Amino acid sequence: MVRKKIKEIDAHVSNSSQFKKIDLAVRNWMKENGFTMLRFSIGFIFLWFGILKFFPGTSPAEEMVTGTISKVTFGVFSDSQINIGLAIWETIIGLGLILGKFMRFTLLLLFLQLPGTFLPVFFFPEQVFELMPIIPTLKGQYIFKNIVLIAAAIILGGQVGNKPSDGLEPEREMGPQIN
User: Fold this and answer.
1) Cα(89)–Cα(110) distance, rounded to whole angstroms?
2) What pTM does this model have?
3) CA distances from 157 to 4, 97, 172 (A)
4) Residue closest to 42 by CA, chosen among 113, 127, 143, 148
5) For the chain, which terminal residue's Cβ has fewer other Cβ atoms within 10 angstroms, N or C?
6) Coil, strand, or helix at residue 58?
7) Do 156 and 39 touch, CB atoms closer than 8 A?
8) Tens of pLDDT along 90-126?
């Protein structure tokens, strides 16, 4: 009975001309602004986390990150060098996304960095999971949220202009329409 009533209300609201006008305005606003907001928000996160890495002890994943990169590079770099290098790398990504400049280079740096963020799952599973492989720790959640960043970066990369230094130029019709 409740479902039937909800369907009736939904049908009435969906067919309302006022609702259709509002719906169209909201969707147009999203088309105009969503892409830029996505670029800025990812850029802000990279800039923020990159800047944190310049200050030892401020990044919650610092130990895991330095341990992972140290393993991959066979201990060639000190923890300090790793932190500074990654701080510079992430700050460049953040600034590139925020400014919308040199997007091919910025997204290349992002795509080179993100797969490495999953290495702790294999190197330090005890730090990533409370109960393997079902319950991630806070550090594990920190890693797995990168799946969303990868998907968002793919969307951004699909909109890079034709010239090597182009920023992003969202097309008017992006992908399939969702009803």
Assistant:
1) 9
2) 0.81
3) 44, 11, 16
4) 148
5) C
6) coil
7) yes
8) 999 999 999 998 999 999 999 999 999 999 999 999 9
| Backbone dihedral angles phi then psi of residue 15, each to the nearest 5 degrees | -90, -5
Question: pLDDT at position 168, please?
Answer: 56
Give SS3 for 135.
strand
CA torsion sign for 96, 26, 149, 128 is positive
Token duo for residue 130: 């409370």
Spatial contact of 142 and 49, defined as CB atoms under 8 Å apart:
no
Which residue spans within 19-162 are E strands per DSSP? Answer: 129-131, 135-136
Q: Which residues, in sequence order, are CB contacts of 45 under 8 Å at separation 6+?
A: 94, 149
Cα-flanking dihedrals φ and ψ of residue 97, to 5°? -70, -45
Write phi, then psi, for 177 (nearest 5 degrees): -80, 135
